[in-house]
Known about the structure:
The chain is mainly α and 115 residues long. The chain has one domain (3-111). It is 58% helix and 0% strand. The chain has helices at 3-10, 14-33, 38-56, 73-82, 102-111.
Amino acid sequence: MDRAVLGxxxxxxxxxLLAALSLVCALIAxxxxxxxxxxxxxxxxxxxxLVFWVVGQNLGGMLSGSGTDLGTAPPLMLFALVLWxxxxxxxxxxDRAATRTTGDYVAQAVASGKV
Length: 115
């Protein structure tokens, strides 16, 4: 985080700011792992990473002309989107017949003598 931004945000109490942010991140992680309000927790994680990326990482320095990568926030936001739960109507089917794999088709072909 830029020294000027950190000073402006914390008024000289950087340790307290970092401790509070650490607790917020730990709470978000706990909510996601425990599957308690996962959409809210993942939305908060994305929003917090966006704030970290804009304020703390200056968009990875890509607008400065000397930035070499975008930083860690974009991949972390992508991971949060990957963990996003499916809508209730789109759960995976419960019976095995509806979710046949390639191995099932091969076994059926072998059993019927086609292979």
